[in-house]
Structure formats: C-alpha cells, structure tokens
Design goal:
The chain folds into three domains: 112 residues, Trigger factor ribosome-binding domain (Alpha-Beta Plaits, 2-Layer Sandwich), CATH 3.30.70; 177 residues, Trigger factor, C-terminal domain (Trigger factor, domain 2, Orthogonal Bundle); 96 residues, Chitinase A, domain 3, CATH 3.10.50. The chain is 44% helix and 22% strand. It contains twelve helices and 14 strands.
Length: 434
Amino acid sequence: MQATVETISNLERRMTVSVPVQSLEEEVAQRINRMARTVKLPGFRPGKVPLGMVRQQYGAQVRNEVLSDAVERSFNDAVEQNKLRVAGYPNIEHKPYAEADDKIEYIATFEVFPEVAIADLSKIKIERPVLELGEADVKKTIDVLLRQRATFEAVKRASKKGDKLNISLIASIDGAEVERTDANGLDLVIGEGGRFPAFEDELTGNKVGSNKVFEVAYPEGHKPEQLAGKTVSYDVTFNTVEQAKLPEFDADFARGLGVEDGDVEKMREEIKGSLKQEVEKRVRAKLKEQAFQALLDNSTLDVPKAFINAEIGRLIQATENNLKQRGVDLSNVNLEPALFEEQAQRNASLRLILSELVNANDLQANAQQVRAMVDVFAQSFERPADVVTWYYADVKRLDEPAALATEENIVEWVLKSAKVADKKVKFDDLMGNA
C-alpha cells in the first residue's frame, strides 16, 4: 500500500492510496472456495456445485467485496500511519473495481479534527448566585402548589386576574383572518403567563356573554415571528368566567403530596428540602452556563463541516419529534437547515472544546463521581436503591450520569481558573418566576 496526503485547507485533506490487486486475488479464491461448500444452484446438491460454475456465478460479486474491504482497510491503515484524526466520513472516489488491473487507486477527501487553543481564563469574571432560602420563599412555593391544584367555579361578576376563561376568538391582520378557535373555544387563566401582557389586559373586566373587539400591537422581535411588528385585531366572545378555589393547606393536602400520615409540618419540611435541592441545581446550572460561555468566548478553533452538518441534522430531528408530540402536522412545516446553523456551530464548537479540555487536564469523571451523580438522580424517586440498581444493571445507562459528572469537573476547572464573585439573587429571579 502506498499513500500520499495533500493539505487542501486547515481541516481538509486529500489522500491518494494505491493497493496491489495481486495480494487480494488469493483472498478472492479463498472466499469462492468457502462459498462452494454451501452454495445452492439448480440441479446440484449443496456443496456439489462445480467450482468453475461458482466462480462464474459469484466471482465478480466476491471480487468487488474483497476490493471494497481492501479500500476500507487500507484507508484506516493509511490514516493510522499518517497519524490523522478523521472527522466525519471520508468521500472516496475510485474507478469501477472491474477496471482494476494490477492495483486499486482511490482518492479519499476528508476533514481532520481541529487544533483547539484555549486562552488564559484568569481574567474572566463569573458570578456565583447566592440565595438564602427563607420562610417566605417556602410559602411562595406552597402557594404555587395550591394554585396548581385549584378547582374553578362559575361566577357572574366581571373577569379578573386569576380567573379561568373560555373564549371564542377571531384574530385578523390587515383584515385577513389568521386565527379562529374551534367549537370548543379556548381555555386560559388570566395572568398565568405565556401570553403577551397587553392581550391579557384586555381580557379583564368582561362578563359571560359579552363581546369585545380590540387591537394589540406586537413589538419587533416578538415570538412567534409571524406576529412581530404587526397589529392584530381580536374579536373575543366570553363564554365562561370561573374563579379559582384553592384547597386547604391541611392533612388531606399533605396526603395528596405523598405524606401518608397527613403531617402538615412534615410536608412543609419536605417542601423546604426539595426547594433547597432545586436551588442548588439552579445555581449549578447558572455556573455551568457561564463557564461554558467563557470557554466558547476564549477558544479558537475551526469546526469541521461534517460536525456542523451532523448537529444540524440532530437539531432538526429533535425539533420534528417535539412538533409531533404537540400534534403538529409536519407536512406543513419546512425546517430549513439554515435556521439551525448558528446553534449547530455553537454546539459543535463547545463539544470539541470540552473534549480537548477533558483530555488535556484528565477531567473524565471517576467511578465515585459517577456513583454520586446516580445517587442525585435517585433522590427524586420513592425507592432510590432500586433506581441505583437499575443504572448499574447496564453499563450503557451510566453514560448520562458519567457525562454530567464530567461536565461538573469541567465547571470546577473553569471556576478555579477564573475570578469568581458571589452575587446575591432573589428567589423569583433564580427560579425563573419573575
């Protein structure tokens, strides 16, 4: 085998490889001989077909298989000999195998892994969120739990924040209808979030059976994009108005949350403990976000196109799966790869940076760290020991906790390198309730 490598660009390589055919003909003969022991042809018992007929019937196929295997084998050998780290799949071009005489010559074009340079992080500033969990925060969480379990009863008064409505709606832009509710109308709770505030403001002060026509001007950059910068005219009929009725914070409520003896104070302590775990989780997430962004901002590398394209494909697939779960007809959806290119570039870059950092600084999670992460996962289940047993019953199940534990090692490495300052935060800001 002979191989020469040409550099096309920072990442692209063109490798020309030639493999003598003579050494492969023996392998072709051996495969045909083995095939002759079991091959079936009309008029012959298995294994009794003359070798010449087997060669005539299957010779070209076997030769192609042997030469194809030789190309794959020689490519891997040439890559190893030239100490190349191939990124993605190579594009291999060669003449038809039937035209090969004394050698096979092919050209493989591919990308290699980039060099990753991570700058000094000692001047990078990272803020560590600090939150002293108070009784008011626990009460606020209990209030949320109560609201989540509220029942609703019809009222004759005008609607206000917190009420549940059923409305019939027609929305138009420049006189053209863009949305209409079906016969069941639309259920919503005023003030629960997720809708443009100006729209929800118009829903207050209305009684059952009333009709209201109003306009809402959406700002540039609004999501969804089809409403951005547009003024939408709404024609709304109020079918029902219901007020929330919160459950009592008592033994029945406690039992509903899994406290079998109905001890309210025990429930309060369990809520507080869960809240502490959630606060710690949010703090770690904020630190990870800042650490990863610092690595992206302070690293230089060229990202292989193969990696970006693969990540675009993954993002499109994930989006399609999400839309399917929401009942969206994908035949009406066109997910252009360009929509995902920026995110794919970021994801692929970060993956390469993290891989380089782990290898260069031996940050791979050890067995104790993986077990600690599994224990964290198990905490939220009723029988943690069973969850731990499930994870360790199949080594592949440990991939996720191992990856997360390794990411925590990376974050700790960044925090030791950067300037970290504590910053007090409000409960709502940290929990995303603002």
